[in-house]
Design a protein that fits this description.
By secondary structure, this protein is an alpha+beta fold. Helix content is 19%, strand content 37%. It has 2 helices and 9 strands; from the N terminus they run βαββββαββββ. Strands 1, 2, 3, 4, 5, 6, 7, 8 and 9 form a 9-stranded mixed beta sheet that branches. The protein starts with a strand and ends in a 5-residue tail after the last strand.
């Protein structure tokens, strides 16, 4: 598995405040995502997004994998936990937690919803 960072999210309970803060800090531009309640972030590399009404106080990092099923199995073998994979237009992802409680996500490009 490569483990390259491929995507990130900055959550917020108030999307207007989230957009204002990050836009003023880094000059990022926010625009409506592929589904309601989600904004995409234009500007940084890798690409990012912002879930609306999300109470998490921490950003989420997505790591690229070639085989999500194998990666999920490996997380579990190493003592971590994973949620069920979710298909999106660009691929499939799974939210995970390592064996010490650190949250992260795995993403496999392609094979998502059309």
């Amino acid at each position: 598995m490569s483990g390259n960072v491929t995507y990130f999210e900055v959550p917020g309970n108030d999307i207007a405040a989230t957009e204002r803060f990050w836009s003023e800090l880094f000059g990022w531009t926010f625009y409506e995502g592929n589904f309601p309640g989600y904004s995409m972030i234009q500007g940084p590399e890798p690409m990012g997004g912002a879930p609306h009404d999300e109470s998490s106080p921490r950003p989420r990092i997505y790591f690229a994998v070639e085989d999500l099923d194998a990666a999920v199995a490996r997380v579990r073998k190493l003592g971590g936990t994973t949620e069920d994979p979710v298909a999106i237009p660009s691929g499939v992802f799974a939210h995970c937690t390592d064996d010490q409680g650190v949250e992260f996500s795995l993403f496999q490009e392609g094979g998502g919803e059309s």
